[in-house]
């Protein structure tokens, strides 16, 4: 071959957890019983009313190309939902329907940050942030989320990380992988810092319906500019509505930024399938009892898992404020994150992810996700405890 892969192609890391998933699936094929805590994919099926809405849309012939920005009815639903949840009504040209919130990260970095410029990003954090940043030739400036600060992003750390090359701050609360929830004051302070330095904020709010801590209310940095100037809010249907396989999400942002992202979406995907968009309208506007049930169940599972782990020698685990994850400290076992993940899988049949999959500050931790039933969670914790005690 005369021509080789591009620097761009060679710098794409992807999402490391998909490798673990492949190994786990191979073990299951060999008949091993595995308890799953690895991938953030809800074990619930998509609520029936949403599935029915998709079927109706298919029957009604919603199977052609749709506008790249998204069908108007869905953008109107998102407009109303934003007003209910975040207190402002974005214009319709501020809303873009995207094929999953994951995609929004690529759109934002490629449209807003020049190669060589900097993005402030939480570490530990969602791996797509780092993969996109690296592939786009942009510098990640990692702000550590410390256990002693309950893994919340500290505004003072953000302030210190800013240079004249900073173009974008990525915020994620409730957070993957730690389950941390920032306070209203912290979010407001970071919104103000971004304004003072004239920097964009990408606020990944995919877990905004998943709060567990008492007395903590949802806050988005979009309150300050109503997504008119610098804030891009990313939201998704995957987690709250158990729709990971449908591939749909939404961005709300400044109209000029959304217009460019729409062209990028048009260039790469044309549009999000319209029958999926009609199902998403039902998710936002329809009966919310399934969402309440799932979030209630996650909360119970969290309690079971955190209590069980804190009873194992060498493991220390904070209760999460939201999302579907916990980030236990396993350093007391004497194993590294990767060693612990291998040990848990091979000796206890328990699939977890090493904290190092989520950044440079993940060593000493593992990520666990509450996507198994309470009975399975109890079984997994018991097996882990026995395996660790037998070492
Ligand atoms: C923080 C965060 N953002 C975005 C995504 C991607 O979600 P989607 O399935 O909508 O692409 C995830 C999925 O795990 C996530 O944890």
Bound molecules: pyridoxal-5'-phosphate
Q: Separation of termini? A: 51 Å
Q: Going by CATH, what is the homologous superfamily of the largest domain?
A: Type I PLP-dependent aspartate aminotransferase-like (Major domain)
Largest sheet: 7 strands, mixed
Strand content: 5-15%
DSSP helix fraction: 40-55%
Query: Mind telling me which CATH architecture of the largest domain this is?
Result: 3-Layer(aba) Sandwich
H/E series, N to C? HHEHHEHEHEHEHEEEHHHEHEEEH
- How many independent structural domains? 2
CATH class annotation of the largest domain: Alpha Beta
How many E-type strands? Answer: 12
Strand order of the largest sheet: 2-8-7-6-5-3-4
CATH fold group of the largest domain: Aspartate Aminotransferase, domain 2
Poorly predicted segments: none
- Structural class, by secondary structure, is alpha/beta
What is the mean predicted local confidence, pLDDT?
95
